[in-house]
Structure formats: C-alpha cells, structure tokens
Amino acid sequence: MNQWPDAATTLPADGTRGALVGRVWRPGLGPSVVAVREDGLHDITTAFPTVRDLCETPDPAERLRATRGERIAGLDEVLANTPPNGRDPQRPWLLAPVDLQAVKAAGVTFVVSMLERVIEERVRGDAAGAAEARERIRRLVGDDVASLRPGSEEAAALKEILVAQGAWSQYLEVGIGPDAEIFTKAPVLAAVGSGADAGVHPASRWNNPEPEVVLAVSSAGSVVGATLGNDVNLRDVEGRSALLLPQAKDNNASAALGPFLRLFEPGFRIDDVRRATVTLTVEGADGYRLDAESSMAAISRDPLDLVGQLLGPNHQYPDGAVLYLGTMFAPVEDRDAPGQGFTHHDGDLVSIATPKLGTLVNRIRPSDACVPWTFGIADLMRALVARGAL
User: Which has more pLDDT, 85 or 109?
Assistant: First the structure.
C-alpha cells in the first residue's frame, strides 16, 4: 500500500453493507459517534452519545440502521485529514471506534506466538540468542503442541514432563493451561484509530506489530461486534520479565483499533470471526516489506471461551469491554543484522486487514513522538454536556 488509507482500501470487501459504527473528532464539538453509510459519515451522537451506549442496546445493528443523523463528511475526506502530519485542525478526523469500553487483550492464544514468548523469556529479551533458543524449545515441546486443548488432560501430562525437565514456562502455563492470560492493554479512551501514528517505546530495540481481531462485548457479556487491532509489542521488555508486561504493552499510542466496529447481524456473526484470516503488511521507508497472515482457525481457545474468562461473576465491566483475541504472528526473519530477527523502524507503515472488517493502517513512531493522549473521560463528559447530548 505504502500510503495512508482511502475509503476503497479502508472499508470491508462489501463496502458499507455491514452495520459499521465509528468515531470522528469534530472541531468545536469533540468526539462524535458516526454511522458509516454509502454517502458518507452521519453523526448519531444525539441518539447515542457514546459507542458504549449503542453497544448496550438489545440489537445494536438494528438501532444503528434505524437512527438518522447529520451527514458531516465523506469518508475519503475524513481519512485524508486523519494522519497527524498535515492535519487541518478545523476539519474532522477519524478516531478509534470505541470509547468508554475497557480495552483488554488475551495473550498467548496461538501456539506459534506462545513459543516465541517462551523464547523471549529464555533469552531475557536479547534478540541475539533467539535462534538457538527457538531450536532448543522446539525440540523439547515437539510438534504436537499445536493440537493440545488448553486445560486438557493431555496438556497437563505435557506440563508434568516439562516441569521434570526444568523446561516449564509461565507462557506455557497460560498457553496450554486452564486459565487464559487476560490483561489491560490500554486505559479507556487511549486507543488510536486507523490513520494515526502507533507508538513504540523509544528504548525498545526488539519489537513487532501484532495483528488481531478484537471483539466488542456488552456489560452483560454479549459479543456485539468486531474490529481490527494492533497490539503493539515490545519483545525485549517483556522478555526481561513478564512482570514488565504493562511497560511492554501500554505506552502512548500503542493500542490501535479500527477502522470501524462492525456490529453483529445476519450476514456477520461470531463464526465469521472464527473463520477470519488476518493479513499483515509492513512497509518501511527504506523499501523493506514484510507480508504475513494469521488464521483464526489456529487459535487455541475459542473466542467465546476467552470472553467467558474476561467477564463474569468475578469481573464486571459496566461500560462493556473490547478484547484483542491474540495473534499467531511472530516474525523471525532477520531485518537488520543476522540473528536479530524483525524489529520496527521509525516510519514503518503497518496494514492489518480481513475482508469482513476492512483495513487498519498505522505508521510506527516512537511513543514520545506520537500525539500525546490528553483527552480523558472528564473531557468527554464535558463535551457531550456542552453539545446537549447528555
């Protein structure tokens, strides 16, 4: 692609036929909930002040389709004004398609990436030792680990063997054990949308994108829709210690979501998520290109099982949540020096796509060079009151 997105490359393969909801910054008004329709973006904030409010209705897709709103702009013109370089602050730009929902993520849900986490742990975040550690770990766990059902008797038996050999890992525990890893990816309102810069901490020297499908879940635990996400990951930081997960995962602009939230209805259901193949393209300013894909069919825990571990009697989210489902993408091919594997360069353009959800595009920058996150929940409430939406 090697360019910022336009409507043709951003929308799902079936265009605006799905129930698509997004958020746009409107100068003078603030964040606005928009319905994505054939003739452009329609502001429905007076009916649904937040995307959270829409997701809490009994049938969000039907309510979205039935709600009229002011057409504010065409999608192309909003997308063109979204990249921070050259943005006109007097015109609208695209935001992440969620607002008050908790931003959560499931880790180690694919065997390939699980083994890479084990490798990071073994080399203590030093990429130079990854190739040797990768071969050693694969010899220990064998080729059958991909067929193991997490929490099963077979998984428990493998655990006993690896513990006896001194090879058990906390990543294997959450990868094939009974309990999933569910963590907080970002604070409420901190996620960035398609067209924005995504942040990598400037101290990191070994990092990668993580292309994922992200579910929107109501406060009652109903999965109401899906979008795409980039769970930007710092391999060197988490590899030093799993206790550094917050520093590895939650940095300015390090949670990307979008382009839009597609709500469930006939024609788009959870089975479409289960069957999805997510593609990834990384294009560097130096001409570097990486293409990969991640099949949701290879996930080790069903998406609804992960939702069940996210929310229930022990974990409530009154404003709902969005849940990154994890990725099998773990790049191992060298980009720079031999044996160093992949890591981002400043300015990489990352495109994450699947036909039913469209394309999420972000440019990678150091997190301290991205637009600072300054607009919080109190600011949102004040903005909605000022425009009479609350």
Answer: 85
Residue 337: Cβ within 10 Å count: 9
> At how many degrees (to 10) do helices 130-141 and 153-164 cross?
120
Find the mean pLDDT for residues 19-33.
98
Backbone angles phi, psi at 123, to 5 degrees: -95, 5
Rounded CA gap, 99 and 285, in Å?
Answer: 32
Whether 329 and 209 have beta carbons less than 8 Å apart is answered as yes
User: Which of the pair, 351 or 142, is modelled with greater confidence?
Assistant: 351
3-state SS class at 173: helix
| Distance (Å, whole) CA 342 – CA 208 | 7
Dist CA 355 CA 277 (whole Å): 8
Which residues are bridge partners to 230 per DSSP? Answer: 211, 256
* Cα angle: 166, vertex 168, 173; to 5 degrees: 165
Backbone angles phi, psi at 380, to 5 degrees: -65, -45
Question: Which residues are CB-contacts of 7 (< 8 A; sequence separation ≥ 6)?
Answer: 74, 75, 76, 79
Q: Which two tokens stand for residue 143?
A: 């080729």
Q: What is the pTM of this model?
A: 0.89
Q: What are phi and psi of 143, to 5 degrees?
A: -95, -5
